[in-house]
What we know:
Number of helices: 12
CATH architecture of the largest domain: Up-down Bundle
Helix content: 55-70%
CATH superfamily of the largest domain: Rhodopsin 7-helix transmembrane proteins
Number of domains: 2
Number of strands: 0
CATH class of the largest domain: Mainly Alpha
Oligomer: single chain
Radius of gyration: 30 Å
CATH topology of the largest domain: Rhopdopsin 7-helix transmembrane proteins
Amino acid sequence: MTMLNRTTLMLLMLTAITLLPVASAAGAAEFEDGTAMSSIERVTYISFVAISLIFIASAFFLFMERNDVARQHRPAIGIGVMIVGIAGFQYALMQDTYLADASVPTDFRYADWLTTVPLMAVTFAVLAGKESFTNRRLFDLPGMSVPGIIIVGSLFMMVSGYIGQVEVDRALAIGETPAGIHWYFFLQGMVGYATVFLVVGTPFTGAYGIDDTKIGDESIRIAMSRMRKLILFGWVIYPIGYILGALETGGDDGAAWMMLAYNFADLINKFGFVIIVLMGARGTQEAIAAYEGRLAAFTPPRAASPEEEEYDQSGLLELAAIAQGDVVPEDDIVDEL
Length: 337
């Protein structure tokens, strides 16, 4: 099975794991405290379960595939294992918290984001390699290069988002309109969001940290472009979920709609992100050459067909000439005859 076919099969399997439970989510159900679930709450709970399984399966898949990439790109695959592995574990905790009494598992979610979002951001620098770092800097921090600035920007985004989210959760729990302070932290988090993009670049602009023209392999350049598109459009889902909760757009089910948006964003961004990294790393010339070399080593030699065989007929021609008396045989040939 080829590299592409294996990856495609894995994508189809994980998609099925997601869709089948959600499709069967209709029907009555209760939280552990005896409260009945609404339809959207039921779907939200199933999404916690399904996404947890997908992330755990993805971590094992990436771990098994790590040897199919060039050595310099294995750290990026290792970071991918960490991203989906941590997320899978945290989703298992969140589903238990939500099932108990429909609680919003903000602490577990941000424990996930505080680790996985900086890991996702720094993957750009790890996959591209330090040779691709530019001399341009958005700003200088003592002792920090491109990876350090990326991590600081993403952490600033997450900490600000957490403070605002706690205020939104409190208001949703007591049925009040959130105080305006959460919008301040929302905008503050967007500053960190913009910082990450300016350093790693967007699909439409250059970057203050990574120069694609310095990346030697075309497969990595393509992966970088796809990663930028994913987080540019995929990360937008998170603010949408925040706004759904802050504006109480979903009514009584506002918390469920907010969490469902967050869950969907995590699935798209984390799972899609690590698959793009894997495909980019496995598509490099070095990885393809190593794969073909291993394939050739384990492929038995094919027997040549009669049409492909070439016979040395010089000996037969010599014997025919001797038989006809045209050539006097040498002593060693006479002995053999």
